[in-house]
Design a protein that fits this description.
By secondary structure, the chain is α+β, with helices and mostly antiparallel strands. It has one domain: 2-Layer Sandwich (Gyrase A, domain 2), CATH 3.30.1360.20. 42% of the residues lie in helices and 22% in strands. The protein contains 3 helices and 4 strands, in the order H-E-E-H-E-E-H. It has helices at residues 9-16, 38-55, 82-96; strands at 23-25, 28-34, 60-64, 67-72. The chain has a 4-stranded antiparallel beta sheet with strand order 1-2-4-3, with helices on one face. Strand 3 and strand 4 (67-72) form a beta hairpin. Helix 2 runs antiparallel to helix 3 (82-96). The longest helix is centred in the middle third of the chain and has 18 residues, at 38-55. The termini are far apart.
Length: 97
């Protein structure tokens, strides 16, 4: 598999405009998800973990009760890559289910 390439700032901005709820903070894609309770938050994390494993691209995240904060970056690329946007889009879809 080809090594992912870091996207330039213009490409990140263009893709970010089509990704509701996400921002760039400290060189990473970032979003805070909020759910009704811990069970929903954990279900989101479980489904997201399974998707991340299929992509072989794993998030940095933090959970407290009904809130999950996600940060995505591609360490191999040294910044944000297309893989981060693929996983972020998948997470948005999972959160809407």
């Amino acid at each position: 598999m080809a090594r992912p390439e870091k996207l330039d700032d213009a490409s990140v901005a263009e893709r970010l405009a089509m990704l509701p709820g996400w921002t760039v903070a400290e060189g990473k894609l970032r979003r805070a998800f909020q759910f009704d309770d811990f069970v929903q938050a954990f279900a989101f994390m479980t489904a997201s973990a399974l998707r991340a494993e299929k992509l072989d691209h794993h998030p940095e995240w933090f959970n407290v009760y009904n809130r999950v904060v996600v940060e995505l970056t591609t360490h191999d690329a040294g910044g944000i890559s297309e893989m981060d946007f693929v996983l972020a889009s998948a997470m948005n879809a999972i959160a809407e289910e």
